[in-house]
């Protein structure tokens, strides 16, 4: 099964709060692949990228490094789309 | 009789019976089910979830239709929770593997999330714990089959007393029966306060222990104008409030007659009455009550409703909505005036020790130019849609004003480069609400097109009184001679410098001060729209000559007591219905 992953840094000023988290989940749900988002550091956590509750638990404020992982036949495309959301700062700017 | 003081977050007065919602955390008994019943229980949960999702979606659409997308946005996250497959799977596993009842499964799983959210250091994220709690309660209520005894099946008018109103509860209130509400918790900028204002229901929050003090069925007076709740009032107090309520209704009924009439003194001087608003939707009511325009559009709501910075498009959407409703009438947009409030202080890495003297309002904007520019761009883009004017709040030095104007110029140049049209001659004004600005009004007049006197902050900074602090609130008085001297000088200096002077603070809407302000030469008053008819009636009942005489006399007094007594007597002479 193909896998893909990408390291990103949360750059929008409010971090991964409710609205961006929902945007992320909505996008992740468009793909078949299993999507997870992991955070290292003092409180490592792996969130189900299709769960808005778990995405909030990441407490990913501005500057937090995250890794997006996808696992499935459309893994590469999923990771690309999801990383793009961060690059676009979730339309915040 | 007992008087409780809180924070009035939505104006109006109501005298009615109390319904108390206890701060019940619907206690769920731990209960196992037989392994054979697991499928049925899982089925029961899934059916209830689907129904809740459907109802909540309707509620969202309903609120969107009635109050706009901004307020409805509060519910989007609730829908996100209800659709969270991972969460649902955890609840189902709890039922299937541990043979829990659906109620117990929901409660255990969701509590865990709510706890984690609540403990987060980021204030915005920790607030989401409340949303989880809200959804949990909704699911439990349905599962337990316990219909809320409350809001949906009321038969008489009530005042609702609760620990805290959840956003969904506030929005679902039956307005024909719920006439107001009072809560233990909450602040001026809470979701609940914002929604209550939009719905026009009087509300007082931050009452600490009102739920413990009031019993269901008690008579209460809820005074959203003064942030007071009176429990079991005595006859005299009820009579006084009834009397003022009667006068209010009378004024309302005179409204139709007054609406089309100009705010003109008996000797022919025309005064412009405008309205203060927070939501574009309020424009309609303002015009209905006789406002000639909007003298103060507070743009903080855009930030508070979503607890994040609005995008340029969201700013633009709100401004163009207001302009469309105004049909060429003027709109004074005040750039964002945040800082000394829960929203910003709660999110700040280092809360300030003295936020009212800190990084607030224009200072905050000048510290965050990209944010400031986004708002200014939206205002400038909207400037071609109607009579838009721009106003900077809390200016205290000339440098600040010049910096703000420079940023505005940058924005104009950028728009020009991008070929986007805007009104280059947009009137630019400033609030006069810091004593330093009032004292230097002559110099400021050379650099702006208009002044607007903000009396709430001007009084606070001149008299060093925080009026939300009940121990000193009694010292807060716009009629203090020092404040009046500043107001007089600002009007005088502005008029000599050929800049328009208006007042948008609460003083402008208080009938007690109408004669005085007229006499001091104020020609534009901006106020909450319910105050317009009464102020207009006083203007139409006097002459400028008389108002000037009153003002001269007032300026000779040396105490606010004399000022207030004299103004009360003089106003009653010309308008016996006043107060």
Précis, in short:
Chain A is of the alpha+beta class and 93 residues long. Chain A has a four-stranded antiparallel beta sheet.
Approximate strand percentage of chain A: 25-35%
Q: What are the secondary-structure elements of chain A, in order, as H or E?
A: EHEEHEH
The biggest chain-chain interface is:
A-B, 22 and 26 residues
Number of helices of chain B: 25
Number of strands of chain B: 16
Mean pLDDT over the full residue set of chain A: 91
Helical/strand content category of chain A: alpha+beta
Structure, explained:
Chain A is an alpha+beta fold and 93 residues long. Helices cover 32% and strands 26% of the residues of chain A. Chain A has 3 helices and 4 strands. Chain A has a 4-stranded antiparallel beta sheet with strand order 1-4-2-3. Chain A is globular, with a radius of gyration of 12 Å. The N and C termini of chain A lie far apart (37 Å). With 579 residues, chain B is an alpha/beta fold. Helices cover 50% and strands 13% of the residues of chain B. Chain B has an 8-stranded mixed beta sheet with strand order 1-8-7-3-4-5-6-2. In chain B, strand 7 and strand 8 form a beta hairpin. In chain B, helix 4 packs across helix 5 and helix 22 crosses helix 25. The longest helix of chain B has 30 residues. The two termini of chain B are 24 Å apart. About 1% of the residues of chain B have low confidence. At the A-B interface, helix 1 and helix 2 of A face helix 3, helix 4, helix 5 and helix 6 of B.
Layout of SSEs?
The complex is a heterodimer of chains A (about 90) and B (about 575).
Chain A (H helix, E strand, L loop, with lengths): L2 E7 L8 H11 L5 E6 L5 E4 L3 H6 L7 E7 L3 H13 L6
Antiparallel strand pairs in A: 1-4, 2-3, 2-4
Helix pairs in contact in A: 1-3
Chain B lengths: L1 E4 L1 E4 L2 E9 L16 H30 L1 H4 L3 H7 L2 H14 L3 H17 L4 H22 L13 E5 L4 H6 L5 E6 L7 H9 L3 E3 L4 H4 L5 E5 L4 E4 L3 H25 L12 E6 L4 H7 L5 E5 L1 H7 L5 H15 L4 E4 L7 H6 L14 H6 L1 H14 L5 E5 L5 H20 L10 E5 L2 H5 L1 H5 L4 E4 L1 H9 L17 H16 L3 E4 L7 H9 L4 E5 L3 H9 L3 H11 L5 H15 L5
Parallel strand pairs in B: 3-4, 4-5, 5-6, 9-10, 9-16, 10-11, 11-12, 12-13, 13-14, 14-15, 15-16
Antiparallel strand pairs in B: 1-8, 2-6, 3-7, 7-8
Helix pairs in contact in B: 1-3, 1-6, 3-6, 4-5, 5-6, 10-23, 13-16, 16-17, 22-23, 22-24, 22-25
